[in-house]
């Protein structure tokens, strides 16, 4: 991880990182989202801060210790000693989505906190992944005897009945519902692909800027979304709407044309077609 060279733009650097799924550098890609608002960000220096946290953590890990105990030590270090926590007073601050800011301020949201937690976990030999458990972002920890599901804002470990409640399955499940419950659990507890994690982080950042109607910053994020998921044509449509808000009819037309060429007939298709006709009239 190195500072951006002046000969390459932030978006070009991001594009190079997300070019293929094999060896996808999740932490670095997520950290790059800050470059649009903080072009001076030095990823090398940020990783030095992470390495410092790792060294402090490693000093607390005995040479022979079971994985569950490692998780307990990591939770104590991360939430108590370092003070990482959700930024409840300013939950919609864009800095909650920037890993460099979260490392510095010790405040973030579920996804950013989880990414830093998992980076530390990987360093001490704990395998973990992110899951979207019925719309809740959780950390799944792989243990020798099974899995643990942690709430990233606090490190709280969910019991199976509590996970059932998150799925909307109450007590006293009937025999015929057991199979459905297990299928739902398997679906909700499946690992999120790194590319999808970055998508969710970027979408949260987009929502933050949309709340203040800062369309110029929304556009910067949308540019990354199109690069990250070029086959997801909905992002061309969404970027087209942003261009219309910014008064850039030419670029809006280009994105709308891509969307119309690939999308099926339906309400969204018709809305974009009408907007495109209005832009050309």
Query: Structural class of the helix and strand makeup?
Result: alpha+beta
Strand order in the largest sheet: 3-4-5-6
Number of domains: 2
Helix content: 55-70%
**Sheet with the most strands?**
4 strands, antiparallel
In total, the number of strands is: 6
Q: Which percent range describes the beta-strand content? A: 5-15%
Distance between the termini: 48 Å
| Series of secondary-structure elements, N-terminal to C-terminal | HHHHEHEHEEEEHHHHHHH
Describe the protein's topology.
Elements: H1 10-17, H2 26-32, H3 43-58, H4 67-81, E1 85-86, H5 99-105, E2 107-108, H6 110-123, E3 128-133, E4 136-143, E5 146-150, E6 157-158, H7 160-166, H8 175-188, H9 194-211, H10 215-228, H11 234-245, H12 249-262, H13 267-280
Parallel strand pairs: 1-2
Antiparallel strand pairs: 3-4, 4-5, 5-6
Helix pairs in contact: 3-6, 9-10, 10-11, 11-12, 12-13
Describe the structure concisely.
With 281 residues, the chain is of the alpha+beta class. The chain is built from 13 helices and 6 strands.
Question: What can you tell me about this protein's structure?
Answer:
The chain is of the alpha+beta class. It has 2 domains: 10-188, no CATH class; 196-280, Alpha Horseshoe (Serine Threonine Protein Phosphatase 5, Tetratricopeptide repeat), CATH 1.25.40.10. Helix content is 57%, strand content 9%. It is built from 13 helices and 6 strands. It has a 4-stranded antiparallel sheet with strand order 3-4-5-6, with helices on both faces. A hairpin with a 6-residue loop joins strand 5 and strand 6. The longest helix has 18 residues, at 194-211. The radius of gyration is 21 Å and the shape is globular. The N and C termini lie far apart (48 Å).
